[in-house]
Amino acid sequence: MTGTDLGMPAFPPFPEAAREAVHDEVLRANLRHATHTIRDKRARAVAELDDWDRLRAAGKAIKDHTLRHLDRYLLQLEAAVTAAGGTVHWAVDADEANRIVTGLVLATGEREVVKVKSMATQETGLNEALEAAGIAAYETDLAELIVQLGHDRPSHILVPAIHRNRGEIRDLFRSEMGRWGRPAPEDLGDDPRELAEAARLHLREKFLRAKVAVSGANFMVAETGTMVVLESEGNGRMCLTLPETLISVVGIEKVVPTFRDLEVFLQTLPRSSTAERMNPYTTMWTGTGTGTGTGEGDGPTAFHLVLLDNGRTDTLADEVGRQALRCIRCSACLNVCPVYERAGGHAYGSVYPGPIGAVLSPQLRGTANPIDATLPYASTLCGACYEVCPVAIDIPEILVHLRERVVQGGPVTREGVRVRIRPAHGHTAERAAMRAARLLLDRPGALRAGERLLSRARRLRPQRLPGPGRAWTDTRALPDVPAESFRDWWARERKAPQK
Question: Which positions fall inside the LUD domain (predicted)?
Answer without folding.
Answer: 76-289
